[in-house]
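Example (one chain per record):
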Amino acid sequence: MSSSKFVGQLKQNNEQINNLKEITTQAEKHMVVHEQKLTEIVDEFIEKQNYELKSHTENKNNPHQVTKDQLGLGKVLNIEQAAKLDFDSHTADTNVHITTTERNTWNAKETTTGSQSKADQALTNAKAYTDTHASNKSNPHGVTASQIGLGNLTNDKQATKSEFDLHAGDTTKHVTATERNSWLLKSDITSSVTSGDTSKVLNGEGAKLLNDKITELQNEVYLTDLLSVTTGEVTLKDDITKYKKLLVVTGGVSTGDVRTSLVRCFYTYTFRPLTDTINVSTSRGKFSASITSNTSISIIQADDALRYIIGLKY
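Predicted structure:
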């Protein structure tokens, strides 16, 4: 081979070598870059795995869902357990526990059958007592007249309604206004009566006395019904200021201590409501009442019951 060809071939070989070097250099650079990227990926993966492993190992919330059966505790209930000290203290408490001797002693006592028999007998006795008490009509509780609202009454015999109606309807014992006026007129006509009949009629003087008595009776008015009260307000049947005097009757018929007292008004010849009081002596003491209105009085003191009041206009 000539030297020129050798030189040319050498030059060509050098160029090829240089090209290979450049390719090799680029390949090396490329490999370095890939190696760095791979290293970064591996480092990141390892770091992530380490973090997950650490998080898993530090997880105390049963991450593997282990059951009590897997731990050999399948029969154990999830309830609070007594402390050994508390348990020992309880078992040693002789107040809440009994011994065999105590149990035998108590078992030897009253049986259910025996106690039931006694309970049945007690129930029977109680029912019999209750029935006897309920049928007792002799005031077993000692109820008084005051407790049933009759404290002002005395134990006097009362007329029945039928007896009162029978008496009130007796026209023989009672007179009418027409009869009274007719008799008053007849009593003054003595000239029309024969001498043999004069003993059967009133003369002029007798007629006057009768007329005066009737006038007197007309001026006497019952201001109350028949009463038997010692307290409270008493309603009058007429205006008390119409009367100059009062007859106040107190006491009881059955006890024989009825007393009639005369009360006079001294101021302007009339009684004054809210000012005057009625004061009279009674068998046991006194009777006193304030005049609260024209038609009412209020009892202040009554040692004997008030029976009735009559108003006198004369």
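Caption: The chain has seven helices and eight strands.
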